[in-house]
Write a structure and sequence with these properties.
Radius of gyration: 24 Å
Distance between the termini: 5 Å
Shape: globular
Structural class: alpha/beta
CATH topology of one domain: TIM Barrel
Strand order of the largest sheet: 8-15-16-17-18-19-20
Mean pLDDT: 92
Number of helices: 19
Bound molecules: zinc ion
CATH superfamily of one domain: Metal-dependent hydrolases
Amino acid sequence: MKLAFGIGHKACRVIVFSFLALSLSAASLSAQTPGTDLLLLNAHVITMNDKQPSAQAVAIRGDRIVWVGNSDEGKKLYPSARAMDLHGATVLPGLIDAHTHLINLGESLVRLNLKDISSEKEIVERVKQRAASAAPGEWILGWGWDEGKWASNYPTNQALSAATPNNPVFLVGLHTFAAWANQRALELAGVNKDTKDPENGKILRDEKTGEPTGILLNHAQELVSKHIPQATLAQARRAMQLAARECVRNGLTSVHEAKVTPLMVQAFHALVREEQMPVRVYAMLDGADKNLVDEWLKRGPEIDPHHQLTIRSFKLFADGALGSRGAALLEPYSDAPQTKGVMTSPEADVYGLTRRALQARFQVCTHAIGDAANRSVLNAYEQAEKEVPDAHDPRLRIEHAQVLSPEDIPRFAKLGVIASMQPTHATSDMPWAEKRVGPERIKGAYAWRSVKDSGAHLPLSSDFPGETLNPFYGIYAAITRQDPQGNPPGGWHPKQKLTLEEALRGYTTEAAYAEFEETNKGAIEKGKLADLTVISQDITKTPPSETLSIRALKTFVGGKVVYDAATDQ
Ligand SMILES: [Zn+2]
């Protein structure tokens, strides 16, 4: 495996300074400035720039695109540039995933991965194997069992506790809205039949004995998770580095990290400083951490002139997930009439933080799944925007915007609220989503077409590691509304499909807009950062059903190849 890490901003700075010196001291010398560094030739360049939608060649100097055109002209204009023949390969603007969890992806690469395992027996066996090589009393941490699929028949801790009596075990669900703990973990946390459910959380209990079963929903997970020893800075760095490497392998050049803790801020800063971060990061600070919020509101946004790590937004959670019935709905769940789900942040809190954030020039990105949560966040944003009328370009975001009441859809465009949506959530949830919300409300669920047509900004993303980070799965889901096997035929609620161009915009220009970077990212044009994704097929000629097989061949960040399929093992 050969991966060139780091975007090399130090080198860029030197170039910038030397140009400045030239232009100040001897303007006439500017005609003799050194030649262009790199010239990509014989490519099929999809620029996402309406003025020049396609091209064959791209010239790059330092970390920027300086020219886009045809191959013959490029060779004439830049005879001394290092030429790279792309042999007809398709080039996209560097793909941006607008909602990710690098840290969880990294941890999943280190922790026990239980994704796609649907049998309790097999999970118990995997945990047992891991415990065999663990130190006495060491926590066994796992991740990825699908709490949405298991919701109607959750396991208990019996078999798990019998297999691993001495090590505490804590297995977080795929969507992080449920956890499965063994008896040892419950004991260490002091969780027993006398423990009350915390606010916005639920301890599942044995009907007869009242003892906890081991399944903890929403905030009840924290009763146990707070006893897990904190990751060290070194562990966090390692996790994020592993995850970042996966990103560039999948053709991603930027990610929007949704929920960043103080430890992660430290790890990101260190990785960037040491040029160990191949992907650009737009960080949303954890808005539930009051100290972190106070510190950053005082300090102000950190906008990186080198575009590697920008910190100017807060992430809030208005509710839970639809699968575990934690999403807050206006009316009861269709398949559980006793509940409407749970709001995890009241409207007043979202409003309060948004108001302070706008005054301090920060963006707010709030997780909202249910129609009640979405309405509440829109209300909070509307009020805050009204009360801070001089807020400069707020670009408030709702993350997921998953189930929307029809009357709320036009409010996104009206208020300038960005709908940050995940195509693969629809295709993962479609087997059970309609049971939860019924035939009427489902029309406003995962409704990208309606949101787009209302005029709202629509960045797209994966929300990895809950879903795959491969952006072509997201594009495929957006244009087909089918699972990877092609079901259902014609697509699920096919009226909501996006066109290929709209889906690509979601991963390029729209995602760039959502992070205030549309002048630097999202299109291949003169002056923009040289972030490019070279892919294995011409996506415009690939039948939608084959979009899934597209792979990244090369990933450029700031003019440097950070991933090359030809040399990656
Ligand atoms: Zn997320």
